[in-house]
Design a protein that fits this description.
The protein contains nine helices and four strands, in the order H-H-E-E-H-H-E-E-H-H-H-H-H. The N and C termini lie far apart (58 Å). By secondary structure, the protein is mainly alpha-helical.
Length: 293
Amino acid sequence: MSGNTVLYGIGNRTRWSRLTRDLFTDLQKGLLLNNKFSRKVKLKNVKIISLVMHGNGLLSDVHLSTTSHLAFFFNAAEWLVTNQDDNGGWPIDVKRTLMPGVMELKPGWYSGMAQGQAISTLTRAFWKTRDRKFVDSALKAIRLFHVPSEKGGIVAMFMDKYVWYEEYPTTPSSFVLNGFIYSLLGLYDLKYLCETIQDVCSPAQVQQTLELYGTGMTSLKTLLPLYDTGCGTTYDLRHVTVPGSAPNVARWDYHTTHINQLLMLATVDDSPILKDVATRWTGYMKGKRAKHN
């Protein structure tokens, strides 16, 4: 941000490439850096006057459109394929602190949530293009679902019995609910793809995706009650894994996410607990409370 000008760099490029930007989002992010703008800008009040390029290079064409969702989607899928490391993941190169001095992650950690969302993106890219590189990348991404958190992976164990794919693989474990469910959704997408299209996955890979998803769903159904406060939900289980720690109560937007995630899973799993819990948690948003003695 320079004065009233929002500047974005695109880095050094040595070959032709397509750049897709959401100008309104760019504007909003830029304005957040300027303390003068405290209110959100509405799209209807924004008009593009000009586009200005600085630097050296070649520009072949410029298009303005109201939406470009497919371009964003494939840009993301291509980025995932290109930037996946040898472990099958996309390391997060920033420090993350859930509880100072207790739950901290150094740069370079992996996230079960990120792995799951990447798998969902890659499988959808394959459905759209039938390009083998996308499904290969998705299959490579499940490697970390076999690596314990303490060894640089994403797998935690609750009471040494129930597998959990950690959004934040801290020690002690945090057991974040929404991140775990996103990992399950990714595994379901890959499982469904492997089961549906013949010869895309080997028999061993089909079995692997089935086991990872099935084991995770068993853990979810078993541990769901631990997140229920009787009037809302908790974001994680730090009150269980860190002695003397208070519950980390989920704010309403995360509570809503929990409900939506359970309802999404209920469309592919007919276990009553998913709908029953989602219904009860929806009631909490309307003022209902669990019975007391």
